[in-house]
């Protein structure tokens, strides 16, 4: 007997539907794992980058005998900082353009770390500080002219969503540590 092809219907088999559902479930699971920790991941990356730059500037200050540090840029009319760049002082009042090829551009928190915001910098009680500089002995100061040494802990606190981190720079030694922070 011959089948009549005009009356037959084309449809997906149960096996084909199950395979498609399994593939979609796997893709959804991968996407969930990939994006669920994105806030914490970019926050950790930002914290480690900033801490690494602080340590790098301290070591350059000690090895070169020149003042090195970070200069932070603030949002006008706000407590929040948006970026920082590395800087050094050649002699009192002379700040040549920094030409380290690994850090040519300023670090922008929101752009470089996928929306890390709410960056506060200073000492307690809160005092807005724009600079963190190190002298030839690695001692931290809050200015590049080395007028005021850091006499209390220096904090860099920032957040992304509900996740928060802080970097703590210790006075006298310039030690740096990264830790979770609860407001």
In short:
The chain is of the alpha+beta class and 183 residues long. It has helices at residues 14-36, 38-64, 109-112; strands spanning 67-74, 81-89, 107-108, 117-123, 127-128, 131-134, 140-141, 154-160, 163-169, 176-180. The protein has one domain: minor pseudopilin epsh domain (minor pseudopilin epsh fold), CATH 3.55.40.
Summarize this structure as a short list of keywords or feature phrases.
183 residues, alpha+beta, minor pseudopilin epsh fold, five-stranded antiparallel β-sheet
Structure description:
This protein has 183 residues and is of the alpha+beta class. It has one domain: minor pseudopilin epsh fold. Helices cover 30% and strands 29% of the residues. It contains 3 helices and 10 strands, in the order H-H-E-E-E-H-E-E-E-E-E-E-E. The strands form 2 sheets. Strands 3-2-1-6-7 form a 5-stranded antiparallel beta sheet. Strands 5-4-8-9-10 form a 5-stranded antiparallel beta sheet, with helices on one face. A hairpin with a 5-residue loop joins strand 6 and strand 7. The longest helix has 27 residues. The radius of gyration is 26 Å and the shape is elongated. The termini are far apart. The relative contact order is 0.16.
Proportion of strand residues:
25-35%
On the 0 to 100 scale, the average pLDDT is 77
* Number of E-state strands: 10
CATH architecture: 3-Layer(bab) Sandwich
Uncertain stretches: none
Roughly how many Å apart are the termini? Answer: 80 Å
| Rg value | 26 Å
Shape: elongated
SS class: alpha+beta
Strand order, biggest sheet? 3-2-1-6-7
Largest sheet, if any?
Answer: 5 strands, antiparallel
Number of domains: 1
Sequence of secondary-structure elements: HHEEEHEEEEEEE
Q: Approximately how much helix is present in the residues? A: 25-40%
CATH topology: minor pseudopilin epsh fold
Q: Given this structure, which CATH class is correct?
A: Alpha Beta
The number of helical segments is: 3
């Amino acid at each position: 007997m011959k089948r009549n092809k005009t009356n037959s219907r084309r449809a997906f088999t149960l096996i084909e539907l199950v395979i498609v559902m399994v593939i979609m479930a796997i893709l959804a699971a991968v996407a969930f794992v990939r994006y669920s920790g994105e806030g914490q991941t970019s926050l950790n990356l930002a914290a480690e980058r900033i801490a690494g730059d602080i340590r790098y500037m301290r070591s350059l200050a000690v090895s070169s005998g020149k003042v090195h540090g970070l200069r932070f840029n603030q949002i006008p009319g706000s407590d929040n900082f948006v970026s920082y760049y590395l800087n050094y002082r050649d002699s009192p009042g002379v700040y040549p353009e920094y030409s380290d090829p690994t850090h040519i551009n300023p670090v922008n928190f929101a752009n470089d770390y996928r929306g890390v915001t709410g960056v506060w910098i200073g000492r307690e009680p809160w005092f807005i500080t724009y600079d963190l500089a190190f002298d030839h002995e690695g001692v931290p100061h809050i200015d590049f002219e080395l007028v005021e040494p850091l006499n209390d802990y220096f904090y860099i606190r920032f957040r992304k969503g509900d996740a928060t981190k802080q970097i703590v720079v210790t006075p006298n030694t310039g030690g740096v540590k990264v830790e979770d922070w609860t407001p």
